[in-house]
Amino acid sequence: MKNVFVSSTSVDLEAYRSAVRDAIIALGMYPVMMEYFPAMDEAAVAACKQKVLDSDDYVGIYAHRYGFIPQGQTKSITEMEFDWASEQKIPRHIFVVKPDYEWPKDMLDPDESALNAFKARVGKELVWTLFTTPDSLAAKVTESLTEDLQNFSGQARGQRRLVVSGIVLLAVLLLLVAGAVVYGTYVAPVRQANQQATNAVLLALNSTATASKWTPTPSPTPQPLPRLANHLNVIVAGFGDQRADGSIIACGMTQNADDIASCNSANAISDVIADSIRSLPDIGHVADRNTPGVGTIAFADAQQRATAAKTLAEILDADLVIYGLVSASADNPYYSVLTPELYTAGPFSHQEADFYGVAQFGSPVLFLKQTPDTTSGSALQIRIAVIKPFLNGLAGFIQGDYVLAGTEFQNAIDAASVGQGDSDGTLRSLLYVLKGNAALRQANAANLAASDALKKPRSDARDKTVQDALNKEREALNNALGDYDQSLSLQNDYSRALTGRAFAIFQWLVWEQMGATLAGQPSQQFDSSLAGIHATDCPQTTPGSASAPPSLAVLILGCYQRASQRPNLPLLADIDVKTAYGTGQLYAWLALHSHHNRCDIALSTPFWQQAQPYLLSVTNAYSAGDTDRQQRIRVQAAGAYALSGLQLVETDPSNRATMQKAADDYSQAINLLQQDIYYTADKPFVAAYQAQLNAINNWLAISTPPTPVPCQVDF
After folding, report:
1. Domain boundaries, the chain
2. Strands 320-328 and 335-344
3. Class of the CATH domain delimited by 3-151
4. Taking the CA atoms of the chain, what radius of gyration do you get in angstroms?
5. How far does CA 204 lie from the centroid of its chain?
6. CA 166 to CA 366: how far, in whole Å?
7. Which DSSP letter does residue 597 get?
8. Tens digit of pLDDT for each residue in 226-249?
9. Each residue's pLDDT tens digit, 289-347
């Protein structure tokens, strides 16, 4: 197992160290941390040095404290740890808090001269990465260590027997596949590259393109772009040039001076975007209009452009294709219209269907030909005022800084509300969904904090930690529900807002159960009559303290049902799978909360019977889907198989044939996640499934299996 030494000051970075510890463990590595060292006397300093020398990687985290200076030393233990790692030539991964990020005043050194001198010395040797929140730091540490992990050939990892109960396994499933919540902390390696790519597009949109002479596209002899681990492949195709009458200019053949000038302008815009992205260090490979097989996507029909972009992505093995049209204005010969478009391939974006497929950077924008329109309040400036915070929000989202993401999405909403920037509300409805998704991530983080605290022995301090986390979760859930309601007020049947709202209410239901546990109250048990209710409405109301858990369950079912019945269901959003999985997951949760006594399994049967067809529809959708769809819904399919296996374990644990089928279901879930492009992030969930599978196989291996577990209360 690979050892990673974590070096930082302690009191001011406690939450950050915990987040990094969990990220390292999730990568299958072992964190070496001061929390497990003895008091720092002279002998302990030597022992600490040996710990550094025995490590395979060094992670340095520096904020606003220099650290403890042991007796007889002139440097802090933090600086000495860096020096020991340097002397041993251990790979060093350095992370420094963003200078303008707000920091508690009581966690600042009165005199930071020693710290600044240390940072300056580190900066001369290494390029460091900035961080803000614990989640953002964990994401960046994961990204930095992942490449080393792939090249590391260490000792075989030991095996541990672990039996996972139904409740614990379902909690793991919630983190993996639940509705709008995505395990955002560990997907940064690919998503940070996307952030940089979109930021490059923004830079290009604000740049003045210098017209260059048109160059004919080389003969198409396409070859797949080389692959770098955790890096994006990007294609920037040539922009098509469209006349006012809708026809496309044949740029390589025209002799018309105006057409040639227009073609030069369109090509220049494409080249600026490609060059901007190519300069980014975390982008794998960038193909442009001059790359063999790329050329210009020059179709008047949007579907033809999208099909061409998709084909390019498949042939050249690209994650993103940037293309679009520069067209003449039908009303004013001095103006042009810019319509940049983006195609995102399924393998890259399967966790967020909202980003999959074709999207425009806002509606077409009118601007002066060959001149950047800098007039305040112009259509172009209004649109850029939307694009900037929109891309900043995506960047925050990708980095795991969900507070920043929510703020930037709100800024984009405010900008889109000016003038005619979003007259039909479609852009703002999407922005509200993304803002709601960011709030849900905050709620999920608070839920994890409460869950971790509940595992500790009960004390006043523990209870306060749990209650504080639950309060944060409630606030975030309120915000998310408000955002989804705003989206639905703009588009009454917007399926993505309905599914997001359904999961937010589901998380509220889980929140109420945790609150009851903290208060020492018995958890709510759900009557099996709920399994027969067919809800169809999703009223825009926020759950409150007076909301009974059964009514919340009905509300969740109504939101999923309404989303699934939306006319002209957008297949690319995979709403059918989202609603089916969400409904099946809810019924599974109700089944596990339908009885205290394990012998009263009959009480859960109606819920399992309701869950089964929904889970089956998810696995069937995966089996019938094309490659893109399978990549987008693979995680949901894995969760459906695992829940199906859990149902068999809970309802018929003494039947060998049933238990064998459960083992097959868990094996299938593991197999799907091992094929997933985010396998590094999936590892904790694969481990949970594998633990349950091992327990089942151990039971099956016994020629005369033991009698089923006797009746237990509060399992």
Report:
1. 3-151, 190-424
2. antiparallel
3. alpha beta
4. 28
5. 26
6. 58
7. B
8. 877 656 678 889 888 887 777 888
9. 988 888 888 888 888 888 888 888 888 888 778 888 888 766 666 666 767 787 877 55
